[in-house]
Design brief:
Length: 473
């Protein structure tokens, strides 16, 4: 007979932790999903609060249905800035007037990346050689055949070899000439979330800039030393994720930002996997720019708009490229020329998605009530229990731990790896246990502190063990 004493001990430990959990009462604030016994994907899509359906209905009846277009003047016009201030105060350590809710993470990343490079490159806004074109040492950005191409058409240095992982030219000899400010390099981690990397490649191509790639340890993530090794007087912008979307590794935001500033460059942080679960102090740490989504730990719902942070003193300097009417100084002047608004509203472009801003408001209130430090303490407790369960139940089955062991060095999820995990994930979903699969063979256990119990966490790991032991076909 199989010894299941470890199961009993883990479940007993989980129940004891839940009984002592000061945030346990909040579990009932979320909608229950019939047939789901363990929801371990809150770092991809947070559960809705129970009061969201009535709030949406009231919005349709009153704000939209009764007040009609008058609601724009009465409340909606200011909502992107007011909601941004709430997120900044509750989750980001950001003073008022520096955070705005709008667009998607990808769009906001583009706005800030391009605006930062334009600012760093000086008044021409392009990285140019003497003739006004991005050039290599011989005056032409060419590979061996004389065409500006890498294997897939990416610009290369003379030998075609000075490349990052996607064929983008990099490094001081890669052939990118310098703009007036002498800063033409955009630094990004090669394992960063795809949208961050894809946008960096596109912006670099648009601006004639050079990509510099950081290759960190895949488990422990980007370190201060990794960043210090690549930044220089040529660096315009460094763009990194606070929490690695794969391993959950937590970067040292304060120290890395300081290193980037010492090099004279700007720092852009992606907070998608940390906002609402990891405390931070954007103002105190001197962060220049940040973006983040609201559908993970802020529970805004699928497709809810993202937020952007732009430090006060940069708002008059950095000019974003999507100059829509909502970022104009006078929205309704309908004038012949674009004049940007003062303050954080300059990051807006088009009409904000008001309906999609509703669900997150209750979650922001709940985080404020709980305290972000309390949320973090619960998060560390959940991930520590998950690692203990991994050690006792999954390590003997040749499952790999793909996250840091130190709770202080990871965010709100852990990742485990096994060659059979794609099929295991299908089985788990069919059985009402919902983690997240990440290519090539990882399962992420996303443990949203306010909606996930310790018992649910252990139940999920037990289900992974059972699926592996039963075999996959």
């Amino acid at each position: 007979m199989t010894d299941r004493s470890a199961d009993t001990a883990l479940l007993d430990a989980a129940r004891a932790l839940d009984a002592a959990d000061p945030l346990a009462a909040h579990l009932d604030a979320f909608v229950e999903a019939p047939g789901v016994t363990a929801y371990l994907d809150g770092n991809s899509l947070g559960r809705p609060l129970r009061d969201v359906p009535e709030k949406l209905a009231a919005f349709v009846r009153e704000d939209w249905g009764t007040r009609l277009i008058r609601s724009w003047d009465e409340q909606w016009m200011a909502l992107p800035m007011e909601l941004g201030d709430r997120i900044g105060a509750v989750a980001l350590g950001a003073g008022a007037g520096q955070t705005v809710v709008s667009d998607s993470t990808s769009v906001l990343l583009y706005k800030l990346m391009r605006g930062a490079l334009r600012q760093a490159q000086g008044p021409t806004g392009a990285a140019q050689g003497p003739t006004g074109a991005a050039q290599g040492p011989t005056g032409a950005a060419q590979g061996p055949t004389g065409a500006a191409q890498g294997p897939a058409g990416a610009a290369q240095g003379p030998t075609g070899a000075a490349q990052g992982p996607t064929g983008a030219a990099q490094g001081p000899t890669a052939g990118a000439a310098q703009g007036p400010a002498g800063r033409t390099e955009l630094v990004i981690e090669e394992g960063n979330f795809p949208t961050d990397r894809f946008l960096a490649e596109g912006v670099a191509a648009e601006m004639g800039a050079t990509l510099r790639w950081i290759t960190p340890d895949p488990v422990h993530g980007v370190t201060v030393d990794d960043v210090a090794a690549v930044v220089s007087e040529r660096t315009a912008l460094v763009s990194l994720s606070h929490v690695d979307y794969r391993s959950g590794a937590l970067a040292d935001m304060a120290a890395i930002t300081a290193v980037v500033h010492d090099a004279g460059a700007l720092m852009l942080w992606d907070l998608c996997h940390s906002a609402g679960v990891v405390p931070m102090q954007l103002d105190d740490w001197g962060v220049d720019m940040a973006v983040g989504c609201t559908y993970k730990y802020l529970n805004g719902g699928p497709g809810s708009p993202a937020f952007a942070y732009l430090r006060h003193d940069l708002q008059g300097l950095l000019r974003q490229p999507i100059q829509g009417w909502w970022s104009a100084a006078d929205i309704f002047a309908m004038g012949p020329e674009y004049v940007p608004a003062d303050g954080i509203r300059q990051l807006l472009s088009g009409t904000p998605p008001v309906t999609s801003m509703l669900a997150m408001q209750g979650m922001i209130d709940l985080i404020e009530q709980s305290g972000i430090d309390g949320v973090r303490a619960k998060s560390e407790s959940l991930t520590a229990l998950a690692v203990r369960a991994y050690d006792e139940l999954l390590a003997p089955l040749d499952v790999r731990l793909l996250s840091p062991r130190d709770p202080a060095r990871r965010g709100g999820h852990i990742t485990i790896g096994h060659p059979d995990f794609r099929e295991v994930t299908r089985r788990l979903w069919a059985d009402g246990v919902i983690p997240d699969f990440r290519f090539p063979d990882g399962i992420r256990l996303g443990l949203s502190p306010l909606s996930t119990s310790h018992a649910e966490t252990v139940a999920g790991v037990l289900a992974v063990r059972d699926a592996l032991e039963s075999g996959v076909s």
